[in-house]
């Protein structure tokens, strides 16, 4: 942390679920689900040890299966109250859920390019607009800040949700020409109070066994 956090400010840690079977196949999961891989399980156990360096008060998490599995593993060490919230679910990708990214780029190239160019209005056919995801996620975060002032809250969710949070706070347009600043599968901390949200620390790595 690079600054002193005011007493009533809520700190929120953001971490993605462990690697899943569909992640390894580069399939779009969205609102669907697949179980964690053995690597996903072992890395999640390592994350539990890393996360113990912060005195968390609660876990708030997506209610999708891959996140619930991740929370179960993390909480064997963290031992925290857990609140599952459907507002933290990954973006619904409609007709593209279950497809590989390569097949979407090949078979739906024109529509994909059109949607990517729309930034916050990206919507897969039959799916959910990214702006709608932003609205529900920040409704959840604002409720957390209101109900848990000064607490430290660990949010376990999805990469799309983490990007949505960090891009919104950073006033990003979510367009392909923007330079990326978030590394996948790392840990991030933001803060929130009645005046809004701030980035605190991004791309924190897990501690390995070595």
Short synopsis of the structure:
This protein is α/β, with parallel strands linked by helices. Helices cover 36% and strands 17% of the residues. The chain has a single domain, classed as Rossmann fold (3-Layer(aba) Sandwich), CATH 3.40.50.1240.
Map the helices and strands.
Layout: E1 10-16, H1 21-24, H2 38-51, E2 58-61, H3 65-78, E3 82-84, H4 101-107, H5 109-116, H6 130-147, E4 152-157, H7 159-169, E5 187-193, E6 196-204
Parallel strand pairs: 1-4, 2-3, 2-4
Antiparallel strand pairs: 1-5, 5-6
Describe the protein's architecture and organization.
With 210 residues, the chain is α/β, with parallel strands linked by helices. The chain has one domain (10-204): Phosphoglycerate mutase-like (Rossmann fold), CATH 3.40.50.1240. Helices cover 36% and strands 17% of the residues. It contains 7 helices and 6 strands, in the order βααβαβαααβαββ. The chain has helices spanning 21-24, 38-51, 65-78, 101-107, 109-116, 130-147, 159-169; strands at 10-16, 58-61, 82-84, 152-157, 187-193, 196-204. Helix 6 packs across helix 7 (159-169). It is globular. The protein starts with 9 loop residues before the first strand and ends in a 6-residue tail after the last strand.
